[in-house]
């Protein structure tokens, strides 16, 4: 499903170059659940962004579902992200002027799904994350856990093959964190979705079937 070979990422800063990832190798199988661990700032989010095709200015090879990302055009990358990737961010990233339903259906706005079907699918997605009856609520009217549930519904609405979860419970209390984690695992298992969780928390990482550290994936 995912094959990463000798991946390196460098950022230009002033007159210097900062290396975030260097010589990274990783394979992730279809339907696998994987936790990538490491302290803040080591490059976990960068790795997820690269897998999502959000950052293609890299050295090395990234092949996802048979597609070499560096060879895709901007339009192909956009289609890849919308059809293959679901991203769960730690900051929720909900649009404040849109309702929960409208936030959940955002990915379908960039597809050829008819509007009525999009709303029906968004409603079903909200129901799958136990937000039935809250379709018309705005982000300011939702708790942190409810906001993350909307974000999960949004990530899953296109039935993606891969879910990338970047510290998905970082802004939640302990009780809510466990419920959100269990929900992510349940929904991805039901859909046989590949799940990659980036985290620095051992209890969160332990939920995946395989755990790796960013340091051990790299040649440094």
Proportion of residues in helical segments: 25-40%
Calculate the terminal CA-CA distance, rounded to whole Å: 26 Å
Shape category: globular
CATH topology: Rossmann fold
The proportion of strand residues reads 25-35%
* Tally of DSSP β-strands: 9
Largest sheet: 5 strands, parallel
CA radius of gyration: 17 Å
Mean pLDDT: 91
Description:
The structure is a single chain. Helix 4 packs across helix 5 and helix 5 (144-156) runs parallel beside helix 6 (174-190). This protein has helices spanning 44-51, 74-84, 100-104, 115-128, 144-156, 174-190, 202-205; strands at residues 2-13, 16-28, 33-37, 59-64, 67-68, 85-88, 162-166, 194-199, 210-213. The chain has one domain (2-213): P-loop containing nucleotide triphosphate hydrolases (Rossmann fold), CATH 3.40.50.300. The mean pLDDT is 91. A hairpin with a 2-residue loop joins strand 1 and strand 2. With 220 residues, it is of the alpha/beta class. It has seven helices and nine strands, in the order βββαββαβαααβαβαβ.
Structure characteristics:
220 residues; alpha/beta; Rossmann fold; five-stranded parallel β-sheet; four-stranded antiparallel β-sheet; 9 strands; 33% helix; 26% strand
Topology:
Elements: E1 2-13, E2 16-28, E3 33-37, H1 44-51, E4 59-64, E5 67-68, H2 74-84, E6 85-88, H3 100-104, H4 115-128, H5 144-156, E7 162-166, H6 174-190, E8 194-199, H7 202-205, E9 210-213
Parallel strand pairs: 3-8, 3-9, 6-7, 7-8
Antiparallel strand pairs: 1-2, 1-4, 4-5
């Amino acid at each position: 499903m995912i094959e990463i070979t000798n991946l390196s990422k460098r950022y230009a800063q002033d007159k210097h170059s900062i290396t975030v990832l260097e010589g990274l190798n990783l394979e992730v199988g279809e339907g696998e659940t994987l936790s990538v661990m490491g302290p803040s700032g080591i490059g976990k989010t960068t790795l997820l962004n690269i897998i999502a095709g959000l950052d293609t200015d890299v050295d090395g090879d990234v092949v996802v579902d048979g597609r070499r990302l560096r060879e895709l055009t901007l339009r192909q990358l956009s289609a890849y992200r919308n059809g293959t990737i679901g991203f769960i961010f730690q900051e929720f990233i909900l649009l404040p002027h849109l309702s929960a339903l409208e936030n959940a259906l955002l990915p379908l706005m960039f597809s050829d799904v008819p509007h009525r079907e999009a709303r029906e699918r968004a409603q079903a997605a909200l129901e799958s994350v136990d937000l039935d009856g809250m379709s018309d609520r705005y982000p300011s009217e939702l708790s942190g856990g409810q906001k993350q549930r909307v974000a999960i519904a949004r990530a899953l609405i296109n039935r993606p093959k891969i879910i990338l979860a970047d510290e998905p419970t970082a802004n939640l209390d302990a009780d809510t964190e466990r419920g959100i984690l269990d929900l992510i695992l349940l929904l991805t298992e039901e859909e046989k979705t590949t799940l990659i969780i980036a985290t620095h928390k051992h209890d969160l990482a332990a939920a995946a079937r395989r755990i790796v550290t960013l340091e051990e994936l790299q040649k440094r």
